[in-house]
Automatic annotation (TrEMBL):
Protein source organism: Vannielia litorea
GO MF terms, alphabetically ordered: DNA binding; DNA-binding transcription factor activity
Pfam families in UniProt: HTH_1, LysR_substrate
Annotated protein name in UniProt: DNA-binding transcriptional regulator, LysR family
SUPFAM superfamilies: Periplasmic binding protein-like II, Winged helix' DNA-binding domain
Family the UniProt entry places it in: Belongs to the LysR transcriptional regulatory family.
């Protein structure tokens, strides 16, 4: 007896309806079957099982012990099939599914998180994974299939032809300090700020490259007191207790200096604004993107 190979969902639904109504005629009507056809299907199932599933009485049909067992499993199987149908429909429509996105820090807080929140308001079944890191790490992950798309800069060692690259925006640098910092007030030039301690991202990162270039363009050496760290927790810990200055993307600075956390930190205005090389939305040409990921990416575009 190989029931799994022989039974069909329509047969399981008939048994389920008979169990609910205790009437073959009512069950057949609910499934748009004739009573003779329903009787024949029931007989075929009982022949496959090798035992009667229902006892026939003048007032209806009563499940046997085998019938009760069959009914219990039929309900589970049909419920799982309905769940499968719902989930597949959600995946095809973009109402459900998994989205994996990598992003550099700035657009993560300014663009990506709000985009995912907006999409999930309309499609709460979407599960999102966000990884924040440097562009080299993110593009490598995209190449390896770990992301649906990334928001990053394309490192020079990669061939741009293997990706779809969509322009995003430039990243503006803001200087974050503690509230009460002595340099707050009027816009400042780098020459006025060089003597302070600085907390800057690691060598080679876009903000670090931009800051080093700005000091050199102003005819200045880099600050003498620099703590290298890409950890926002480290940055905030140092800023809270010192007069240090931390260059951050404009989006990150907005998060740091607003709401409750903004009571402790402020943005220091520069006389000459600084910007970083633009970032892009990047998708691997060889990778098929699911509907949920497409929805998130389109929402990202709307916010750029």
């Amino acid at each position: 007896m190989d029931l799994a190979a022989r039974l069909k969902p329509r047969q399981l639904r008939l048994i389920q309806r008979i169990g609910e109504t205790r009437q073959l005629q009512s069950a057949a009507h609910m499934l748009a079957m004739s009573q003779p056809a329903a009787s024949r299907v029931l007989a075929e199932i009982e022949a496959e099982v090798g035992a009667p599933l229902f006892l026939r009485h003048p007032k209806g049909m009563e499940p046997t012990l085998v019938g009760e067992t069959f009914l219990r499993h039929a309900r589970v199987i049909l419920s799982e099939l309905e769940s499968l149908e719902t989930e597949v429909a959600g995946l095809r429509s973009g109402e459900a599914g998994e989205v994996r996105v990598g992003s550099v820090t700035g657009p993560t807080v300014g663009v990506l998180v709000p985009a995912i929140q907006a999409v999930r308001e309309a499609a709460p079944g979407i599960q999102a994974t966000i990884e924040v890191g440097p562009s080299t790490q993110l593009v490598r992950g995209l190449e390896e299939g770990r992301f649906d798309f990334v928001i990053a800069r394309l490192p020079p060692e990669y061939d741009s032809r293997q990706f779809r690259i969509y322009p995003a925006r430039n990243e503006v640098i803001a200087l974050v300090v503690r509230t009460g910092h002595p340099a707050l007030g009027a816009p400042r030039r780098l020459a006025e700020l060089r003597a302070y301690e600085w907390v800057i991202q690691d060598l080679g990162t876009p903000i670090r490259v931009a800051m080093d270039g700005a000091f050199h363009a102003a005819g200045l050496a880099a600050p003498d007191q620099i703590t290298n760290s890409s950890s926002l927790l480290v940055v905030l810990s140092i800023l809270a207790g010192t007069d240090a200055i931390a260059p951050q993307s404009q989006e990150v600075a907005e998060v740091i200096t607003r709401n409750r956390i903004g009571d402790s930190f402020a943005k220091l205005e520069l006389a000459d604004p600084l910007a970083v090389a633009p970032y892009f939305v990047i998708h691997n040409r060889s990778q098929q993107m699911n509907r949920a990921a497409e929805r998130v990416m389109q929402e990202v575009f709307r916010r750029l």
